[in-house]
TrEMBL record:
This is YegS/Rv2252/BmrU family lipid kinase. PROSITE patterns: DAGK. Residues 1-136 form the DAGKc domain. It comes from Lutibacter oceani. Its cofactor is Mg(2+). GO terms for molecular function: ATP binding; kinase activity; metal ion binding. GO terms for biological process: phospholipid biosynthetic process. Transmembrane segments: none annotated.
Amino acid sequence: MKNKWFVIVNPTSGNGTSKKKWPLIFKELTKQKFDFEYVFTAYEKHSIKLVQNAIKQGFIKFICVGGDGTLHNIVNAVLILNPINISEIKVGIIPIGTGNDWVKTYKISKDYKKAIQIIKAEHTIKQDIGKITLLKSKTVFFFNNLAGIGFDGYVVNKVHKYKNLGFLAYLTGALVSLTSYKKAMLEISFNNEVIKDKTLMLLIGLCEFSGGGMKLTKNVHPTDGLFDISYIKKITLFTILGNIPGLFNGNITSHKLVKNYKTSELNIKVLDTEKTYIQADGELIGSGNFNVSLLPKAIQFIIPKNS
Ligand SMILES: Nc1ncnc2c1ncn2[C@@H]1O[C@H](COP(=O)(O)OP(=O)(O)OP(=O)(O)O)[C@@H](O)[C@H]1O
C-alpha cells in the first residue's frame, strides 16, 4: 500500500476540464507504470473525507488532479487528521484549475505529461502551512498558498460567476467588485504592531501567486517560517487600472498604498461587521474574528528538482 498512489480527481476543476482530461491522464499514469487507485470527488470538500480514509488505509502518496481548491482540501485533510506518519505523506499535483496559483511558485507544468514526470521523480519540499482559527466557532482551517480578508474574500465570493474566463476570472471579479465593496474596520495585531483602521484588504501569503497569477505579496519564501503580509487600507479603481501589469509582475507590492510585513502570527478582530469574508487558497472559509499561526515545514509536496 505504501508505494501505491491515491489519485483525487475533482471533475469540476477548471470549469470541467479535469473530467474531460481524465481519460488522457489515466492513460499516461498507466503508461508511466504508476500503481494507483483513483476516485472522483462527488461534492464540495469530498476530497477531505477521501484522503483521510486513504491515509487510514495506509496510503502516503497522493496526486491531486484539480486546482487550488482541491489541493487546499487535500492539505486540510492531512493536517486535520494529523496522523503519526504525517512526515512521510507526499502530495503531487496535476494542475487543472482555473487560477492554478500554487503551482506557479514551483513552476509545475500545466502540461499533464510534464506534471506526471515531476511526480514520478518524487523530489519533495517541506513547505510552511498557515493555520486559521475562527474564534466564534473554534473551527480550524489550513492554507498552503495565501489567505486574505476583506476585499480579497469578497472577490472570491464573486469569482465563480466568471470562471469561464479562466485566469482572468479573478481580475474581472476584482474590477467588478471594487465599487460595491464596503470596507470593514479591522484590528490587526502582529509582532509588536496594532493596525486599527477601515481596511480594504489584508493578505497573508506563503507562496508567490494568487488571483490567477497576481503577485500581491513581497519577498516570498515558502519555507522561511514567516508569512508575507500585504496590508492595503484603500486603493481606487483608477489606481488598479493604472497598475494592472504591476499586479502580475509584483511591482504593486512597492506601491505607497501597500504596506508589507513579515510575521508568523496574527490576531484579527472585525470591529464593525461580521460579514467580512475570509478566504484561504481561494476557498471562502467564514467571517468574524480569527487568529493565524504558521506551522513550519508542515507538508511535503512533490515539486520539480530545479524549481
Ligand atoms: N463533485 C463536485 N461538485 C461540486 N464541487 C466540487 C466537487 N468536487 C470538488 N468540488 C469543489 O470544487 C471547488 C473548486 O475546485 P478547484 O479549486 O480545484 O478548481 P478551480 O476553482 O477551477 O481552480 P482554482 O482554485 O485553481 O481557480 C472546491 O471548493 C471543491 O470543494
